[in-house]
Hints:
The chain is of the alpha+beta class. About 35% of the residues lie in helices and about 20% in strands.
Amino acid sequence: MRFFSPLFALILLCACSGAPHVVRPEVTGAPPAHRLYLVSHGWHTGLVVPAAALNRALPALAERFGRPAFYEIGWGDKDFYRARARTAGLALQALFWSTGAVIHVVAVPDSPYESFPRSNILDTCVSDAELAALTRFVSNSFSRDRSGQIVALAAGLYGDGQFYDGAGRFCILNTCNKWTAKGLRSAGHDVSPTFQLTAGSVVDYLADNRRACAQPAERIGPAAREAPPAR
Length: 231
């Protein structure tokens, strides 16, 4: 029993430290007018969101990246996510005694289908209020310094990317994929993030709950046109 007590305490602490938290969107009944994308890279998912909305909320991103069409945003463990060679030791550390979190931001100049041709991509659409709530959720996922500025760390893993210091703490019950589910929840999707701990679970949810846009798609390439229509 003594062996399990520290492990139980770690899991309980993890369950109580679920930041960043879902931002509830205002219910307005407005049509979905903004296209979002879920990108699955295998073990990890991220959200591709309109860059203009995030640039308004986080001017430091505009200073760093300019004005791309979208940003791919991912959240994860500070050591495991940034590692070029991911080991079992780093994975265990992330799950049970993470040292903190990071945000990974990648500029997507046009179509995510062109930027991530080998990844599994699903699209959905949200209203103005839902995009505003998602923007607040993403903004809250960044840690701030004493002057209130987001904190840039190392260069990103691919493309025009950048790591930033993140809010919250990664753990076995608060994973990168749960963060993605919380983002979808903030964007008005009726998904429970509690058990969305794997990439497959988040992808499966959105595959069955995609929304059509009330406007044509943004500039997209051939791969995007071949994607199945939203339900």
